[in-house]
Structure formats: C-alpha cells, structure tokens
Amino acid sequence: PVVTAVVTTWASGADAAVALRTHATAHGTARAVALSSRARPLAARPRAAVVSAANEPPFRVAIAGGGVGGLCTALVLLQRGMDVTIYERTDAFRRFGGPIQFASNALSTLYAMDKNLFDRVMSKFTFTGTRACGIKDGLRSSGFSMEGDSLSYLWDSSKGADWYVRFPLQACADLWNLPYTGVIDRPDLQEILLDECAKLKADVIQHGVEVVGYENTGADGVQVRLSTGETVAADALVGADGIWSSVRAQMYGEEVKKPEKGGKVRQGCTYSGYTVFAGEAVMSLPDYYDTGYKVYIGPKRYFVTSDVGNGRVQWYSFFATPPGMKRARSGWGTDAVAQGGEGDQSGESTVEYLKGLHEGWSDEVHYVLDQTPEGAVEQRDLYDRKPELFRSWSEGGVTLLGDAIHPMMPNLGQGGCQAIEDAWVLGEELDKALDALRGEGAGEIEPPATRAEAVQAALASYYKRRIGRTAAVQVLSRLASDLIINLFDTPWSPHDDKGTDWKSYLTFFWKPVLQYIVFPAQFAFLYSFRPSGPMGALPQELDDKWRKRHREAAEAAFEAARSGTLADDRPKATFISD
Question: pTM for this one?
Fold first, then answer.
C-alpha cells in the first residue's frame, strides 16, 4: 500500500518550487518528490481526479547511461514522482574525466531543478565568464598581454594586437540576470548528482549493466534488454548513452562505432575535420587571475587555454587533419587501435611534436606546452552529427537525449548544457502526460486512453520543443570550426607581413562584425533558456564569494608546485568534454 502526504507551497512563474509529496512504501522507504509548479491544491481538484491520482502509479523510466545527461534526467524525473532506474555499463563510479563547462543557461536549469543541487555545484565551481575571455592572435600575442582588443594598433605600432575579439559572456549573462559561465570537474559533478538521486531512490543506478536493445510492446510499454541477458519492463526508455549510443543504433538502424568512408563517418556521425590534443597542469601564468579562457587562432588550427581552478590551466589544440592520425593516448577510454591510428613511431614526445606544429606561434602557446607533463597529453578525433530535422528522436516509448542524438563540436561549450536542458524539458512533458492520464491538468492536454499513448505523446512533444534549439546550437558549434578552416587566418596588420593573403584581410574585416553583432547575438541566444527566471543579486554574490576562495586555492597550488610537493591526484582524463 502507498500512503501519500502532500504539503503544498505556492510561488509564481519558473521560480515556483512547489509541492512535496512523501511516499512511504511497504518497505518503509521515504521519498521526497518535488512536483511540478502546475500542480493545484487537492481541495481545488475534482474528487474523481484525486481518486484517480491515488490509483494511477507513476511512470517507470529506464535510462541508458549514467553520465551527466542520464543523471540529470534521473533527478528531474525522480523529483516528479517517477520510478527511475539508470543502467550504467561501468562496474563502479570512479573519479574519471576532466572539467566540463556550464554556461549560464545550464546553471539556470540546475537552479530550477533543485536549489540544494545548485549550491553544491557552486561550491566546486570555477567562474570563467566574469573575466576576459575571447580570441587572441595566435602569432602576434606576446607576454600574456591584456591589450589589443581595439583598433588603435593600426595607427600606433606601440599598441599590441594581442586580443582579436573579446566574448561578451558577462554582459549576456547580465542581460538575462543569470549566473556566469564556468567549469566544474566532472567527477565532482557526478558525485553530487549521484548523491542527490540516491536521496530520492537509494538503488537508482545499476552498475555493470548496459542497455543493449529494446522492444516496443504497444500498450505494455517497452521491454528493455540488458547486457546481463535480463529483460525489464518500463513505460519509457531514455537513451543517454553518448555519441556511440546503442539505443540510437537500434532506432536508426546503425551499427555501433562502425567506420565508413575511410573513418570520415562513424555510426552516422561525421568527422569534423579536426583532431584535438589536450593537456592540463598547474601553472602560474601572468594573466591567470585576469582571464577565463582564450582561443588563439592561426592558419588551419586553434589553441585554447582555460582556468579550471586550483591553479590548473587546461589547454586543447585543434588541428585540421584526416581522421586516425594518432600521436597521444586517447581521452574517452579508447586506445590508438580503436581510433584507427597506428600511434607515433618516431620517438618524438607529443609535446615536442605540438611545439613543432606551432612553430612561429605566440610565446604564450609555447610556454603553456612547456609546462605540461608528457603523460598529461591526450588526443581524440572529433565527430559530431547533423541535426535530425526529418526523423523523430523517439520510437514508441523510447527517446534519445544529449550526445546520443545531438553530439556537437566543443567550440561553444554547450554539449553538456544542452543535455541538461533536454532533461528539464523531458521531465516537464512526462509530468504533463501523467497529469493528463490522471485526469488532471485543467484541459492542457487531451486525456490519453492508455499509459503507452500518454508516454508517446510526451516524447513527441519533447522532440518538437527541443529540435529547433539543439539544431541551432549544433550548427553554430560546427560553424566556428568550419570558418577557421576555410575563412580565417592571421589578421592583416600594417606593421608586419604575418597576414597578407585574402583570408587575412577577411579576418581583419570580420573583427567589428564579430565583436558588436555576431557574438552578442550568439551568447544572448544561448543564454535565453532560463527556467529559473531572473536571479536578482545572486550571480554577483556568487562571483564575489568565489574570487577569494579561487585565489587562496590557486596560490596554495602554485606554492606546492614550486616546492615539488604537488599531489598528482587529478582525474585521469583532462579534456573539457561536453
């Protein structure tokens, strides 16, 4: 028997955090579940609806994959009273993975999910968007200068041209009154999400079990096939199992990780034209406290550095090259053979190889590479996917989420952010469907005849709400790389001959367009998803508190590095992966 006690709290708009329902099961387990802000007091509902709600059990949802997208989806659905189980192929949680970027839109969504969750994330967060971020000249930048983002260098040769364009991250966050962009170590984030989910369901995740297939069974929902040979029943299956998704493979008739066209296509995903090297080290750069992240641009390549907290600087270097060129160990748990390369046979270190490829580039780039231990360097070929504009993300009671359906280039740092947005919208749609099934919702949706119909309608609505935005972000993320390959070069300057072809002149004339039109519009659009609503003075308060903590932690790390006592307990993978 299920005993239900309901406490109702009312607020307006997206900030309404609402009602708490405590379910005491026959086994004595108590779960506190946050209901949707659309809920009405029981006294205002028809008596028949209250009886129906008591008799209609919550949706059973299986989630393939326990990454950030899967965990956020589980938390959102658990808060809405659903019975959720995550199937994760790794046999146990391990601290693996580097920092992940969360932009203002993702932070707004986390706050709307759960304020305690948001506070815990903020305690581990490193803000980058409150400092100088943008594009630097990969050849001319020198000495970590903060100058050069104006055109005064054209008539005054003493002025540097280091900064090509600065990103309006802080201004665009302030436009919507949201927290500022930053990074958090993926293991810290996963620990927090696992803990928050476990508070609502102790056995929410099954490790060492992978979803390998499914069967839609009509009115009975979905039969989910597991790697153990078992089959479990669910009302819905969510494929959050990453770019090489087994769930997507069955839905779209693909073969997992199968390479085609010389490696330029793998399981329906296209090679971006770039391989990326990445590394991380503690380094006291002259501009460490003044800059968040920097993108150095040059011919056919770009080099990115970012403060990731605790005195650490992470970098990643993008090269336009055919797929399969292996020079370093792979980040994401694969090896050179799996990637299709043969590895380096020359004996030259990866760091020296990268320095050679950046010959003639800024001393800032070479300084960062020199500070990086050889063992900290990783490599991966970058694949993304065209938006699925003409195929639904759903089949019966099965749907896809995050990288499983819209993997994207990391240029905008939106991969993880879009997965979190997916989780929020999917939760809203399934919640509305359950309300409709129970006869609630005040006519918002036509009452479905069966649970399966309710789920299918919710998944169809989820796709319609998400496809436009995720498609736009996918295109913008890919466009940045394509422009650098095809239309960008070292900007023209009257004081040297480092940029003299037509691409250099074009890059020079792009500057005001990017600075005053393109980037403000781009980041304003990205941050426009804001289920928390305006957040008042909180964003500035968070930044003020963080700055002192950030400096203390960084100075301690710098001192430990100088004295040789720095502990090597960083996560094993160092990419900022979305």
Answer: 0.86
| Residue 28: other Cβ atoms inside 10 A | 6
In this structure, what token pair is assigned to residue 399? 């749907």
Q: How many helices (H) and strands (E) does the chain have?
A: 15, 24
What SS3 class is residue 19? coil
pLDDT in tens, 503-532: 999 999 988 899 999 999 999 999 999 999
What torsion, rounded to 10 degrees, do the Cα atoms 496, 502, 508, 513 define?
180
- φ/ψ of 540, rounded to 5, equals -70, -35
Give tens-digit pLDDT for 254-296.
999 998 888 899 999 999 989 999 999 999 999 999 999 999 9
* Secondary structure string (H, E, C) spanning 273-285: EEEEEEEEEECCC
Which tokens go with 128? 């980058």
Q: Which helix (H) or strand (E) holds 299?
A: none
Beta strands in 283-359 (DSSP E): 291-298, 301-309, 312-320, 329-330
Q: What DSSP assignment string belongs to 203-251?
A: T-EEET--EEEEEE-GGG-EEEEETTS-EEEESEEEE---TT-HHHHHH
Q: For residue 465, count other CB atoms closer than 10 A to its CB.
A: 16
